[in-house]
Design brief:
Distance between the termini: 45 Å
Order of helices and strands: HHHHHHHHH
Strand content: under 5%
Helix content: over 70%
Shape: globular
Largest sheet: none
Number of strands: 0
Length: 186
């Protein structure tokens, strides 16, 4: 079923919307959540929560595309669950490693950053991503949005993991320079 048809089901409050969303996007959502949580049961719970969140959000929202809409929901749910697990001394540190790699480019101190500046930063990072060749943009997103391991990315692109690490390092440096030009202190 096409996204427009699924969206129409949500707008009509037809419960088939959830079944169709699950049929089309559960594998995609599983990959995103499992990259973060690395736990099958927690990942499945996040997927179920994604459909509930979508049901509660559509309407009034009408996303242009369901795939990034679901990606954002599942990623946020998985990161929240990960933080909860970390507070209970459970889980690994792969997510922290990926986020720490970006620390040198983007400060995330909540006491300094207002919601407006966060939106502006997001806009500038998106602008930066549009300047990159497709492969570099995809590698950056796979690592820092989808939180895939560098080994998974290397396998996907048929390259050595060391090549992916070099590409990511160069992209972080480019991002740092780009943000400095935009007036950010990095």
């Amino acid at each position: 079923m096409e996204d427009a048809q699924i969206l129409d089901l949500y707008w009509k409050r037809d419960e088939r919307a959830i079944a169709e969303s699950e049929a089309k996007y559960s594998t995609y959502c599983y990959t995103i959540a499992n990259n973060i949580l690395q736990n099958h049961e927690d990942t499945k719970e996040c997927i179920n929560d994604t459909w509930v969140k979508a049901w509660d959000t559509i309407p009034p929202q009408r996303p242009k595309s369901l795939k990034p809409f679901f990606a954002k929901i599942i990623r946020n749910l998985a990161l929240n669950r990960y933080q909860m697990q970390k507070a209970k001394k459970r889980g690994g540190d792969m997510v922290i490693v990926a986020i720490e790699e970006l620390d040198e480019c983007v400060s995330s101190r909540e006491d300094v950053e207002s919601e407006y500046s966060a939106k502006l930063l997001q806009k500038n990072v998106n602008q930066f991503l549009h300047t990159l060749p497709k492969r570099d943009c995809d590698i950056f997103l796979r690592r820092y949005f989808f939180l895939e391991s560098t080994a998974e990315i290397a396998k996907c692109y048929g390259m050595r993991e060391s090549n992916v690490l070099v590409i990511l390092s160069r992209l972080r440096n480019k991002l740092k320079k780009f943000l400095r030009k935009e007036g950010y202190f990095v």
